[in-house]
Amino acid sequence: MRILQTAHLTKQYVHGTNLINALDDVNLSIEQGEFIAITGASGSGKSTLFHILAGLGRPTSGRVIIDKFDLRKLSADDLTVFRRRRVGFISAKPLSYNLVPVLNVYENLILPILLDAKEPDDEFIQKLVSLLGLEKNLRDMPGVLSDNQRLRVAIARALAAKPAILLMDEPSDCLDDKDSENIIDLLNVINKKFHQTI
Ligand code: ADP
Ligand code: MG
């Protein structure tokens, strides 16, 4: 099953008198369960693409279809709900991974589900917590965690709502090579175990 498709996606930025073609006819097709990396030099348009795929920005032209939803056809309100339910998005910026500083790890994990007026799937969340090695951190506040731990909390939170796709824009930017490899190993396990598209 196709989980994500883009057709003739373009994004132009106006910078002074210059027109920057950040995306120029991007056609992408991703099947359910795939684990894909997008690589390219700095400035080649990766973050621009992720923002549009996550529904945070609109393209200049072209279409994005995720989980059968054409993002162009969603109202601003519907897009907000769609993002909360169907897309997990993690970016290395900001370094806090947008965790809420006054809530502990467990409260952060279930916050998007509570905002959606849904019941958290405790069994599934418990599986995520143990897979990501966060059992001992559930009552910790984000501020006392390492970058590596914070990223693992952000991954667990992104997956707790069982999104159609997990999008990550250079998530391990701030980690050293060993920690980065460890995160990629974990993502591989999550991809296989839950058939999660990443
Ligand atoms: P990457 O993530 O691969 O480094 P970006 O998507 O951040 O690439 O940037 C792609 C191009 O678009 C670059 O030339 C960058 O300078 C430009 N760009 C990105 N965001 C903006 C913006 N808000 N306004 C103007 N130009 C931008
Ligand atoms: Mg970038």
Short synopsis of the structure:
The chain has 198 residues and is an alpha+beta fold. 36% of the residues lie in helices and 23% in strands. It has a four-stranded antiparallel beta sheet, with helices on one face. A two-stranded parallel sheet has the order 5-6.
Bound molecules: adenosine-5'-diphosphate, magnesium ion
How confident overall, as mean pLDDT? 94
Helix percent band: 25-40%
Biggest sheet overview? 4 strands, antiparallel
Number of strands: 6
Overall structural class, as computed from helix and strand content, comes to alpha+beta
| Oligomeric state as shown | single chain
Shape: globular
Span of the ends, CA to CA: 14 Å
User: Taking strands numbered 1, 2, ... along the chain, how are they ordered across the largest sheet?
Assistant: 2-1-3-4
Give a verbal description of the structure:
- The chain is of the alpha+beta class.
- The protein is 36% helix and 23% strand.
- The strands form 2 sheets. A 4-stranded antiparallel beta sheet has the order 2-1-3-4, with helices on one face. Strands 5-6 form a two-stranded parallel ribbon.
- A hairpin with a 2-residue loop joins strand 1 (2-15) and strand 2.
- The chain is globular, with a radius of gyration of 17 Å.
- The mean pLDDT is 94.
- The site of adenosine-5'-diphosphate has 12 residues, from strand 1, strand 2 and helix 1.
